[in-house]
Design brief:
Strands 1, 3, 4, 35, 39, 40 and 42 form a seven-stranded antiparallel sheet that branches. Strands 2, 33, 34, 36, 37, 38 and 41 form a seven-stranded antiparallel sheet that branches. The protein is mostly beta strands. The chain has two domains: 138 residues, Jelly Rolls; 332 residues, Methylamine Dehydrogenase, Chain H, CATH 2.130.10.10. The mean pLDDT is 92. Strand 6 and strand 7 form a beta hairpin.
């Protein structure tokens, strides 16, 4: 009788990794982690869910902007835009009967304890709850129309602009320094307060952000940083070899670094000096994103979440996503993927009672609160799937007979396990194992389905209130043939 070998796989911290061949995946990497996160180092558990904040706003329509508004030192409000600006008053969304209508894109910024909003075809608007409400005159008289807005070093900057009927898609206008809470704008051609950003490259400004003591200007194919010294001198420098972004809403700052999305390079990390692509582990999903201009990001602690919408996986249609998300843990450099129940169109976070709260907007006029204590998407069950790498156990050249497995998990009563063996002809059929009831579950493997060169497991669970944790596997097997078996 052949000797029984034992192999332990107790570290699950490598995340999903699909860039290498199946022979080069590390033992702690997974072929698929769908709607899972790596909150507990070494284990896999289900991602957070969300609940609706109030009711949907008006008739069906997308939330085009979602932003916190902090003013007066301590007063906080959440402002959203659908077909009008709405302010959350603690229990309902109050429409503002604002002057805008019929727009498809809105961006905003808090500056001077006032709320500023821009749209390329509408007059730049201002909201001050203590100074007369909504207006297109206070601190915005003479301001250009714009797609993007950013406060930086005591000034307000507007990017991708329109003056009269003339578009300046590679230009940034900036305000004067405030005097007694008031700013002015000078858009005079040739002498006004503006900066042209590579007007000869056929590219447009696609976003603005701030990184440390510099402002970042994103085009699609390039990234630029603006610095202002103590004398007010401005220096604009192109970041060498750094691509830009297709989506302003993908830009998020986490722990002193800027993360953003580019349709060719995927997710990038800018560290203040250079930008590097960091999403090779899930590049097949990146290549399959159908609407790269519509991705939306938000952060949860040190985790970067990116809503990517429909994804056509180039190698496996079983891995296609409809309302897809990609999750990147910046502390462990690991990825997972998944889907949410709603089409995400905007997102932002704010501090409330010294805690960070994150909100996402959808295409049906709803604002949803991302909630660590919730494991459903506004009442829709979250399905967890986690597929291991192929465990080759000693070598793929050896044919093994797998006899049993010890599964280490906190099953929460509903975690299911299937497995399949791999041989020279390909993958065997998935075989269902019994459900998990214990923290350490011993499961026998049928000799009929247990012979192969490698073995792969998949865990699955779907509920609204369970948080299973997958922690490890021990495999028991004997070597059958070293060369010419299955």
């Amino acid at each position: 009788m052949a000797d029984v070998e034992i192999q332990h796989y107790l570290d699950q911290s490598g995340g999903q990794q699909n860039r290498t061949t199946k022979y080069l995946q590390r033992d702690n990497e997974w072929a698929l982690i769908y709607n899972g996160i790596l909150d507990n180092v070494g284990g896999i558990n289900k991602r957070n869910g969300y609940t609706i904040l109030g009711a949907a706003m008006g008739s069906a329509g997308s939330i085009l902007e979602l932003a916190p508004f902090n003013y007066g030192g301590s007063t906080q409000r959440l402002i959203a835009y659908r077909d009008d600006f709405y302010i959350w008053n603690g229990s309902t969304w109050a429409a503002q009967s604002n002057i805008w209508s019929g727009v498809t894109d809105v961006h905003s910024e808090t500056y001077l304890d006032e709320f500023f909003a821009v749209n390329l075809e509408k007059a730049t608007t201002n909201y001050d709850p203590d100074g007369g409400g909504w207006t297109t005159t206070r601190n915005v008289t003479g301001a250009p129309k714009a797609k993007y807005i950013q406060s930086f070093q005591a000034r307000l900057f507007l990017g991708h602009c329109k003056i009269g009927s003339t578009y300046h898609r590679s230009r940034i206008y900036y305000s004067t320094l405030p005097v007694s809470g008031a700013i002015t704008w000078d858009t005079t051609e040739g002498t006004g307060n503006y900066i042209d950003v590579r007007t000869d490259d056929g590219d447009y400004i696609m976003g603005l952000s701030e990184s440390g003591n510099r402002m970042l200007v994103f085009k699609l194919n390039s990234l630029h940083r603006l610095s202002i010294d103590s004398a007010g001198n401005q220096t604009l420098v192109q970041v060498p070899d750094a691509p830009g972004t297709s989506a302003q809403r993908s830009i998020i700052n986490i722990a002193g670094r800027t993360y953003y999305f580019n349709p060719t390079y995927g997710i990038l990390e800018y560290d203040g000096a250079s930008a590097r692509p960091i999403s090779l582990a899930v590049h097949d999903y990146i290549r399959g994103i159908q609407a790269p201009e519509s991705v939306v990001a938000w952060s949860d602690g040190f985790v970067y979440w990116l809503y990517v919408g429909a994804v056509t996986h180039p190698n496996d249609s079983d891995l296609n996503l409809t309302k897809g998300i990609i999750c990147y843990d910046t502390t462990t450099n690991t990825y997972t993927v998944g889907e949410v129940a709603n089409v995400v169109t905007a997102a932002d976070s704010w501090y409330n009672s010294n805690e960070v709260e994150t909100f996402i907007g959808d295409n049906a006029g709803r604002v949803l609160e991302w909630d660590r204590s919730t494991k459903s998407d506004n009442g829709t069950d979250i399905s967890l799937r986690a597929r291991t790498k192929i465990y080759w156990d000693a070598s793929p050249a050896l044919v093994k007979l797998y006899e049993k497995a010890l599964i280490y998990a906190d099953p929460q009563g509903s975690l299911k396990v299937t497995y399949r063996v791999v041989n020279r002809q390909g993958y065997g059929d998935w075989q269902e194992m019994k459900g998990l009831d214990n923290l350490i579950e011993e499961i026998n493997i049928s000799p009929r389905y247990g012979e192969g060169r490698g073995i792969q497991f998949e865990f699955s669970e779907s509920s609204s209130n369970k948080t299973p944790v997958i922690e490890g596997i021990s495999l028991f097997y004997s070597i059958v043939d070293s060369q010419y078996g299955k």
